[in-house]
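Researcher: Next sequence.
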Amino acid sequence: MPHVLRLLDGWDHGPAHVLNRRTDVLAQNALCVALFEGLEHTDNVLRMFFLNPAAKGFWTAWEQEAQRLVAHLRAVVGADHKNPSLLELVEELSEDSEDFQQMWARHDVRYRRGDAIHFRHPLVGDLILWQEAFSVDSAPGQRLVTMQAEPGSPSEEALAKLGAMMGLVCTGHRRR
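Model: Next structure:
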């Protein structure tokens, strides 16, 4: 994982983090920290979505994205159904979130693929970021998730502005 951490530290194209099967955030770059600054439960993506009162305003297509996450979790649980930490997460979310409980009851199963995610950030406004996940071969069950804006888009400008506010240099798709 040290190589992945170096990659994260040098990744200046957009937010990036490393997640495990439960969507626990194991590592993240500075722009990812800035993107989710002010939200609760940033240690786990599913908990951030379902246990965070501000989530529905932060993700502008919250329900669609939440359904994707739940369907992905169901696929992961199906492949590793004896994993107690996965089952504990499902139990926690089912008890604490009616939205999660209803989505889980649909039994949708689908692994995530690259999707556009729509955010409304309190400092820089609306962002559309394309997310892609890569398996970390040196750490089975972990994924490096990257988010990037379209080159030349308002979202790329907003990411650069967010990075500048945090003292970061964001290069987007161009090297400066």
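Model: The domain at 2-165 is CATH 3.30.450.180 (Beta-Lactamase). Residues 17 and 28 are 4 Å apart (CA to CA).
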